[in-house]
From TrEMBL:
UniProtKB keywords: Aminoacyl-tRNA synthetase, ATP-binding, Cytoplasm, Ligase, Nucleotide-binding, Protein biosynthesis
InterPro entries reported for this sequence: aa-tRNA-synth_I_CS, aa-tRNA-synth_Ia, Anticodon_Ia_Val, M/V/L/I-tRNA-synth_anticd-bd, Rossmann-like_a/b/a_fold, tRNAsynth_Ia_anticodon-bd, Val/Leu/Ile-tRNA-synth_edit, Valine-tRNA_ligase_type_2
Gene: valS
SUPFAM superfamilies: Anticodon-binding domain of a subclass of class I aminoacyl-tRNA synthetases, Nucleotidylyl transferase, ValRS/IleRS/LeuRS editing domain
The protein's name: Valine--tRNA ligase
Source species: Microbacterium stercoris
Enzyme class, broadest EC rank: ligase
Length: 856
């Protein structure tokens, strides 16, 4: 046991106990113990892997603390805790960070340079894309690896400072060899079952990242637009049909006009055709219920593709594809085959190579010259689809991509996913609705291929026919995994056959980062790698995460578990709320109101920050003001009080053979029993805030009232009740230290070391002692103490002033309780004579101060 310092302080506890926990292996997963107790004795956590290319902010501290509190509680309850952590280090954000950090960009056509040195080693954000140094794919990936490893070290240091009780030997990276094998294996198994497939389809495309974007990665942003009223000529010569569009630049891609089936204005034209202005292409007029009668002229121009609705119309009305926007966001050179007139071809030639913005301007000029533009409306704001990490609106292009079935087009799978969602215990329960809304709102299968470089390679090649055209898909053998098709060779071929007719070509796309992150239970749990471990930890007990990625991480993980094992990946889902600024706006990097946690932790201490986080219930947003972090200050005060109260309590010797017999001591411990029971119930239900509230409330009563009431008795070695008071104080301190341990992890460990062996975090969680005591005794004594202090204050006397006579009236039951603790009341109030009588209400009716002041 450690010596109690002269002046206990929070400073330095993070370093002291962080080192001790590491050396002692306090939080290591004990597999032998897990095998001894079986799956029922294990508590496993599917911990979120933070994006290594980003920066941790106060929201991470908030949500990860919630998980840690629960994990610490389960560990103290005797569970063998499996609490790993990983880093999400592949994908688009990492690539962008590498570009901005080193001043490079990937050019796969370049050869590898073993001696390459990046031009920058820090902030290259101000560098224009054209000025970034092109490097080979392998060089680029090496830089990604280098930077993510450094970023992860910074993250780990902060998590250790916060006191996360993760097992640091159970870490993973979403780009490690082991992870790549798991991700590729899951893909191959899905392909074998027909769940993963390749198809040519319209694809949401980010022209800056040059990559396809999945539905889950979209966000709407308000953008300015203008309606352009165009005249489509009726092919029967009877006049024009007017349409209104915000995207006149896509006129060459027009494949139909669509109106609502019940729109009387256009019913007569359904099945007939009209001619596009400028290009003279004949397109049909069709009916579809998604057309909005009250929007614009009530009839829409369908282009391939202007927005998501165009994609639906194209699919459901079986329309052709006329692509004019290329992967670089510019108008492609080849005009659609439907443009046959010389005038139309000449007009199209003026658009070739232009960006979408420039093409719009040029198209307006062409329409005006041809008399097809009737009006340009006033600017207005409307929602436009963006990649959540992108800077420009998405375009829709037609490409061959890999998809994973997700229930959007399979009602049986969708119903199974909804059923599995109902089997999970959600904390809070209302978050399940967000999951169900997402499943019910899916509009297409999950696009899992990405046209990027730093990611898990899709493990396939394509056979080349005698003309060098791609044909049959060649899937990797499981024994080959992990593979990189750009360098590895499929079974049955030689390296010399790469890229030649009759040979093969490797897939260059990588898997969407969520296609790997959706497998975190499998990655950390040893799926298809360590069967013993997998059976000990899976299905996991809990998935903790933010509410904003229910649609991505939670859904995709549940989907993969359903496809692979037809079960939920975890029993519980704990969903944290957002952090909002003082104006109640969600904190985010895009808004510029994010607070980084390092300075907050250094200034106030980790226990204070953990207290702030644990004070908020799951699913509830928490306000944070870095200029006045009130809750953090309260938490710091609580942690300091725990240290000082413990030092004071431990100053009272406990005689050998001591027993708790005094009514006040029994009352206090009976009240503590109730707190233990209620706090345990709350933590079992993932309500850490309620457990903390109960423990904290009792602790302040313990310090402000009980400790004050019994300290004189505890000091007095001659008092027959000294042993009872000292033992009760020690017993309460031991229990309170364990109650606070999941939240005030450092201060609790420090206190525990002063009078107990081992770590409080591996000590048993407290259980009600069964002590029989009258709860009313402490309540009455506390009320009397407050009344006596108030009376002295009103008399403008010091609390140390002796009292000759004090009289208290109280209801009969309260008066009876007070008589049982009169000795402690007289001692704390320095009262010579205490009169307690029955009355209707509690009141200090008389207080006669002594003539001389008592010594300090």
């Amino acid at each position: 046991m450690a010596a109690i310092p002269e002046k206990p302080a929070l400073e330095g506890l993070e370093s002291k106990w962080g080192t001790a926990w590491e050396e002692q292996g306090t939080y290591l997963f004990d597999r032998d113990a897990a095998k001894a107790v079986g799956r029922a004795g294990v508590y496993s956590v599917d911990t979120p892997p933070p994006t290594a290319s980003g920066s941790l902010h106060i929201g991470h501290v908030f949500s990860y603390t919630h998980t840690d509190v629960k994990a610490r509680f389960e560990r103290m309850r005797g569970k063998t805790v499996f609490y790993p952590i990983g880093w999400d280090d592949n994908g688009l954000p990492t690539e962008r960070r590498v570009q901005n950090y080193y001043g490079v960009r990937c050019d796969p056509s370049l050869a590898y340079d073993a001696d390459f040195v990046p031009p920058f080693n820090g902030d290259a954000k101000s560098l224009k894309a054209a000025d970034q140094v092109p490097v080979s794919r392998r060089n680029f990936i090496e830089l990604c690896e280098r930077l993510t490893v450094e970023d992860e070290k910074t993250f780990e240091e902060l998590w250790r400072d916060l006191g996360l009780s993760v097992d640091w030997t159970q870490t993973y990276r979403t780009i490690s060899e082991e992870t790549i094998r798991t991700s590729q294996l899951a893909f191959l198994r899905s392909a074998d079952r027909g769940e993963a497939y390749r198809a040519l389809a319209p694809t949401l495309w980010d022209i800056d990242f040059r990559s396809a974007i999945a539905q889950a990665e979209l966000e709407d942003r308000e953008q300015q637009a203008q309606y352009h009223r165009l005249a489509f000529g009726k092919t029967d010569g009877s006049g024009d049909i007017e349409i209104m569009t915000t995207r006149p630049e896509l006129l060459a891609a027009c494949v139909a006009l669509v109106a609502h089936p019940e729109d009387e204005r256009y019913k007569a034209y359904f099945g007939k055709t009209v001619t596009t202005p400028v290009f003279g292409v004949e397109v049909p007029v069709l009916a579809h219920p998604l057309a909005q009668q009250d929007k614009g002229s009530g009839i829409a121009m369908v282009c391939t593709f202007g927005d998501v609705t165009d994609m639906i119309w194209w699919r459901e009305l079986d329309l052709p594809i006329r692509t004019i926007i290329g992967l670089d966001g510019r108008v492609v050179a080849d005009a659609p085959e439907a443009i046959t007139s010389e005038e139309g071809k000449a007009a199209y030639a003026e658009l070739v190579g232009l960006t979408v913005f420039s093409a719009k301007k040029k198209m307006v000029e062409l329409l005006e010259a041809a008399g097809g533009l009737l009006e340009v409306g006033k600017p207005f704001m409307h929602p436009v689809k963006f990649f959540e990490k992108g800077d420009r609106p998405l375009e829709i292009v037609s490409t061959k991509q890999w998809y994973l079935t997700n229930g959007a087009r399979d009602e049986k799978l969708k119903e199974r996913l909804l059923e599995l969602g109902r089997q999970i215990e959600w904390h809070p329960e209302f978050m399940r609705v967000r999951y169900e809304n997402w499943v019910n709102g899916l509009s297409g299968d999950w696009l899992v291929s990405r046209q990027r470089f730093f990611g898990v390679a899709i493990p396939v090649w394509y056979r080349l026919d005698e003309n060098g055209e791609q044909g049959e898909v060649i899937y990797a053998d499981v024994a080959q995994l992990p593979v990189d098709p750009s360098t590895d060779v499929p079974t049955g071929f030689t390296a010399e056959q790469r890229g030649v007719p009759g040979g093969f070509v490797g897939e260059t796309d990588v898997l969407d980062t969520w296609a790997t992150s959706s497998l975190t239970p499998q990655i950390v749990g040893g799926w298809q790698r360590d069967e013993e471990l997998w059976n000990l930890v899976a299905p996991f007990d809990v998935r903790p995460q933010g509410q904003d990625i229910i649609r991505t991480w939670l859904f995709s993980t549940l989907l993969r578990s359903a496809l692979e094992d037809d079960r939920t990946p975890w029993a519980h889902a704990s969903i944290s709320g957002f952090i909002v600024d003082p104006d109640r706006k969600k904190m985010s990097k895009s808004k510029g109101n994010v607070v980084t946690p390092a300075d907050i932790l250094a200034q106030h201490g980790s226990d204070a920050v953990r207290y702030w986080a644990a004070s908020s219930r799951l699913g509830t947003d928490a306000a944070f003001d870095p200029q006045n972090p009130t809750q953090i200050k309260i938490g710091r005060r609580l942690a300091i009080k725990l240290l000082n109260a413990a030092k004071f309590v431990l100053s009272f010797p406990v005689p050998e053979g001591a027993e708790i017999t005094d009514p006040l001591d029994l009352s206090m411990l009976a009240g503590l029993d109730r707190v233990v029971a209620d706090a345990t119930t709350a933590l079992e239900a993932y309500d850490h805030a309620r457990a903390l509230e109960l423990s904290e409330s009792f602790f302040w009563t313990f310090c402000d009232d009980y400790l004050e009431l019994v300290k004189e008795r505890a000091y007095d070695q001659e008092n027959p009740g000294q042993a009872s008071a000292a033992l009760a104080l020690r017993t309460a301190l031991e229990t309170l230290t364990r109650l606070f341990a999941p939240v005030l992890s450092f201060a609790s460990e420090e206190v525990w070391s002063w009078f107990q062996e081992g770590s409080v975090h591996t000590a048993a969680w407290p259980t009600p002692s069964g002590i029989e005591g009258d709860l009313a005794v402490l309540t009455a004594a506390s009320e009397a103490l407050i009344g006596i202090r108030r009376a002295k204050t009103e008399a403008k006397a010091s609390q140390k002033t002796p009292v000759a006579v004090a009289s208290i009236t109280a209801p009969a039951a309260t008066a009876a309780a007070l008589r049982r603790v009169s000795g402690d009341l007289k001692a704390v109030g320095r009262i010579a004579e205490l009169e307690i009588t029955d009355g209707e209400e509690f009141a200090v009716t008389r207080i006669d101060l002594a003539e001389t002041e008592a010594p300090a």
